[in-house]
Design a protein that fits this description.
The protein is mainly α. It is 56% helix and 4% strand. It has two domains: 63 residues, no CATH class; 141 residues, P-loop containing nucleotide triphosphate hydrolases (Rossmann fold, 3-Layer(aba) Sandwich). It has ten helices and two strands; from the N terminus they run ααααααβαβααα.
Length: 215
Amino acid sequence: GGGFTQKDFTPLDEHYGEQTIQTHVMAAYAEAGLDAMDRALRLSEDYFVLDRDAFLRRWMPGRGAEIRRQTTGTSWKAIVETLDNPVQQKIVADDREQTNVLVLAGPGSGKTRVLVHRIAYLVRVRREDPRGILVLAYNRHAAAEIRARLRHLIGDDASRVTVSTCHALAMRLVGASFVGASGDAHDFDGIVLEAVRQLNGEGLTRSEAEAQRDA
């Protein structure tokens, strides 16, 4: 038969959506227990007696958007709401699928901050695997700044995000190293060109190129 369509994944999407709500309910139970245990017990009883909408209206009113997010309210505020700028918030919290976003702005306008918060959003809100995220910077200082800001937002998960300069990534792809090399005349241009050839799969069969890409 043909490939899968979005409709095929609807039941799975609903399942994970329900799991997300249940996670927020458990958090609400814990918060209620810290305040008064009898209140937490009433919440627990209502969860199993009331239908979902009635339960949410009683115990989590006005939190419809929050309980559908795969993150805590504290995390959402740190990643999105602290930006203050509505345009930046819209870029960071963009949930469109398979789309590219170009951010054009002048020096000191907050491009790096938007980038870092977008990565944090993908990891903490969208629950993307941080090991599948690649961030390219123009120089080592910028790369170090991104790593530091990202660690401040998402902690240890930041170490799983690949943050690199273009030259460092090219060297990694081709297995080049200047350790022990004499002089300062390193052939970065040649390394970048070789990396591009490898990414394009030049000189390889289609299956070899796909295997190299997925390695």
